[in-house]
Amino acid sequence: MNLEALCKEANLELYDSELVSENGKKIYRIYVMNPLNEKGERAGINLDDCARLSEILSPIFDVEPPVSGEYFLEVSSCGLERKLSKIEHFEKSINELVKITTNEKEKIEAKILSVENENINLQTLDNKKITLKFNDIKKARTFVEW
Hints:
Blueprint: H1 3-9, E1 13-22, E2 25-33, H2 47-63, E3 72-77, H3 87-91, E4 97-102, E5 107-116, E6 119-124, E7 129-133, E8 137-142
Parallel strand pairs: 2-3
Antiparallel strand pairs: 1-2, 4-5, 4-8, 5-6, 6-7
């Protein structure tokens, strides 16, 4: 089963998935985002988007469960401010603002310009261009200036 292809069928992009335990219940959570439009922008995710994907996945998961045992399926937006833990997360967040903490505990706020292999090209808020290696990043998340 290809989760990415199933998301595309609902005209969505897979951002991530996780299996969590909350209040003694197993939850298989799928995070999605809308694809880029012709202007290079993403529309927000609404309840109908999540329901559409859930309707596609439910009968498939009844036959081929993604996890063993009893679980609850949850389809959710990845959110405006989200954790970036994979190189693919950075690729899907190009042109967004990000807060990064490096392994050397340096804190950086910048815009993601591009991703090339393991290099993440950024423009700091004071307009300096820098490149970080993915492995030099301890943690990162997108943020929105309100």
